[in-house]
Amino acid sequence: MGADTRRSHRQSGTLCRTLEASDAMRRMRWAAALMVWALAIVGPSAAAQLKVAVVDTAQAIQQSEEAKLFAEKLQQELEPQSAELTLLQEAIAALGQRVEDEGDVMSEADKRTVAKDIESKQIDLDFGAKKLQKELQDRQNELFQMMFPKVRSIVNDLVEVERYDLVFERTNVGYVNPRHDITAKVTEKLNERYLEDGET
Predict the structure, then answer these.
(1) Is the pTM of this model over 0.85?
(2) Is 166 within 8 Å of 53 (Cβ atoms)?
(3) Residue 54 phi/psi, 5° resolution?
(4) Which of 23, 139, 154, 158 is 20 to 30 A from 129, comparing alpha carbons?
(5) Strand partners, 169
(6) What is the residue-level pLDDT of the chain in tens, covering all 200 positions?
(7) DSSP codes of every residue in the chain
(8) How many CB atoms lie within 10 A of CB 46?
């Protein structure tokens, strides 16, 4: 990988982290503003009686049995593509080792041939890795979109049963006392419904 490519990757990573941090700060400010607004509406005495909960939707889904089974099936389905990438990595490493071992006795023409071969395989590897990553991301998004309504329904049920006044998304809040976190409850209910539906 060239210096420009590495620099580009570092800059891209820095930009992503900056955008993520900025987005996180906006969510936290929004959550704080919502809490202040809610407390202002109900008043100080009622605020002391508010029953608040938080849920990490992504974590609740990822830890569910349905998501774990989905991940196992997806891994098996994408195993051929993953194996191809592994073979490319091994081939590139072998060519690099050849240059290191035989570089002193190789002709310039052979060195150029090996260098082009490495470059070609690296391009194939990068393309294949991006394609595989996109496939994984797309399939994960499909799972989340399918399960979001289930989580929302479960949270609504818990609100009715537990009489919560406010339920926040965990990623929108800074610090949370663990006793207010209902993520594990949501995962448990997801697993119960999954078994009840007879999905295997």
Answers:
(1) no
(2) yes
(3) -130, 150
(4) 23
(5) 55
(6) 544 444 444 444 444 444 444 454 455 455 545 554 454 454 555 445 789 999 999 999 999 999 999 999 999 999 999 999 999 999 999 999 998 898 888 899 998 999 999 999 999 999 999 999 999 999 999 999 999 999 999 999 999 999 999 999 988 888 888 999 999 999 999 999 998 887 54
(7) --HHHHHHHHHHHHHHHHHHHHHHHHHHHHHHHHHHHHHHHHHHHHHTT--EEEE-HHHHHHTSHHHHHHHHHHHHHTHHHHHHHHHHHHHHHHHHHHHHHHTTTS-HHHHHHHHHHHHHHHHHHHHHHHHHHHHHHHHHHHHHHHHHHHHHHHHHHHHHHHT-SEEEEGGG-S---GGGB-HHHHHHHHHHHHHHTT--
(8) 12
* Measured distance between the N- and C-terminal CA atoms of the chain, rounded to whole angstroms: 44
Q: Tokens for 73?
A: 């099936």
CA dist 193 → 93, 115, 160, 186, 187 (Å): 48, 56, 18, 11, 10
